[in-house]
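hiii so um. not sure if this is the right channel but i have a protein structure encoded as tokens and i wanna go backwards to a sequence. like what aa goes where. can anyone help
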């Protein structure tokens, strides 16, 4: 059987694409990624980066707090249908809801990684491996790539220990959580992300220590100047983080940093640690078959469209976006990719 739409990836972009493609009667197949230890370590398990965060406070429609009370107060009585209970939404919950919504409309899912893909001929061909030896060969008329990106970490074992317990790679996602309020926080990096995260965190933190390995920033001047002028940001130049400190109960309590010029180490108290040393898009499996940027992100070849350099292949979400990188923007481009695929298939008389 030749699939009409195969969606590779299972973050907000993938599920939004699936919901739209399924409602267009295209019976999409989502290849959501394999449940393997290797993917866990890389940060590429099914459901993507959002599944690695705790609460999501900025996804429209899901305010924090008691959702039941909110819906009751926000919706007129004659339109209030269900008894809601509970709280705001967590990243994993939001993704499970999207996944279920896609399934309800007829999306099929396999929990595999695409390990090989041939986009040089049509129908496209790919191999999907469950990580335990079972490989499926799949043929598709159109493909939506929504494999996302993964945050880079320094690779310290202690970062791994406190992930979701004070260690984060997304200040915009997590910075406003109660655990980070009115405490000193640490950000690592010297690019625009680090500037943005450090500045953003000053709204909540008592102080932000920005640790950078050199004596000048890579970031754009305007963003670097904003950081340099912010009295709440203390810059630790020529320094690296050797260990994230903490305990199971409190999570992160500080970091041990080392000055590269003096080789002196010090412990800095902190209630949170944010890695802002860049992201890596999950495009390795494409092996150069689509046009990529110099940072290996997929290129959208036409403004306001999700087209890639191969006709019939579309891209959505963080795999093609190193700029906005939000769940809502990923979902938006996922919707666009499904509409683009549907229209392209119709244009080619494929259904
Ligand atoms: P980036 O520009 O690649 O910067 C990464 C930073 O992390 C660099 O300062 C680098 O240090 C440091 N770093 C990398 N690996 C490290 C390691 N192992 N240990 C310690 N430090 C390490 O990445 P980014 O800041 O995420 O930005 C990515 C892109 O998004 C850029 O094009 C950026 O302009 C854009 N962006 C724009 C905005 C905005 O305009 N609002 C916001 C965020 C991102 P070195 O400098 O020593 O290499």
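sure thing!! here u go:
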């Amino acid at each position: 059987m030749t699939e009409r739409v195969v969606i590779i990836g299972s973050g907000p972009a993938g599920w939004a694409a699936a919901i739209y493609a399924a409602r267009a009667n295209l019976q999409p197949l989502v290849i959501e990624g394999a449940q393997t230890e290797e993917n866990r370590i890389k940060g590429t398990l099914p459901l993507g980066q959002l599944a690695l965060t705790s609460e999501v406070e900025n996804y429209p429609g899901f305010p924090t707090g008691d959702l039941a009370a909110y819906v009751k107060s926000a919706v007129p009585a004659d339109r209030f249908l269900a008894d809601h209970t509970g709280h705001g939404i967590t990243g994993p919950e939001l993704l499970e809801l999207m996944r279920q919504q896609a399934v309800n409309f007829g999306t099929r899912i396999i929990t595999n990684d695409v390990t090989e893909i041939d986009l040089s001929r049509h129908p496209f061909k790919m191999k999907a491996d469950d990580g335990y030896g079972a490989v499926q060969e799949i043929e598709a008329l159109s493909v939506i790539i929504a494999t996302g990106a993964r945050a880079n970490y320094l690779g310290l074992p202690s970062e791994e220990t406190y992930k979701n317990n004070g260690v984060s790679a997304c200040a915009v996602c997590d910075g406003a959580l109660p655990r980070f309020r009115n405490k000193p926080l640490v950000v690592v990096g010297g690019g625009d992300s680090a500037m943005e995260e450090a500045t953003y965190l000053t709204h909540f933190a008592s102080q932000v220590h920005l640790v950078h390995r050199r004596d000048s920033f890579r970031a754009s001047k305007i963003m670097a100047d904003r950081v340099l002028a912010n009295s709440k940001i203390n810059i630790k130049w020529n320094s690296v983080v050797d260990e994230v400190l903490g305990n199971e109960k409190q999570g992160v309590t500080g970091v041990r940093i080392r000055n590269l010029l003096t080789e002196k180490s010090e412990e800095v108290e902190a209630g949170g640690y944010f890695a802002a040393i860049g992201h890596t898009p999950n495009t390795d499996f494409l092996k150069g078959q689509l046009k990529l940027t110099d940072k290996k992100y997929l290129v959208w070849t036409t403004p306001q469209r999700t087209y890639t350099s191969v006709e019939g292949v579309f891209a959505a979400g963080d795999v093609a976006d190193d700029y906005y990188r939000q769940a809502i923007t990923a979902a938006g481009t996922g919707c666009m990719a499904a509409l683009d695929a549907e229209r392209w298939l119709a244009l080619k008389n494929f259904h």
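oh and The CA atoms of residues 6 and 237 lie 47 Å apart.
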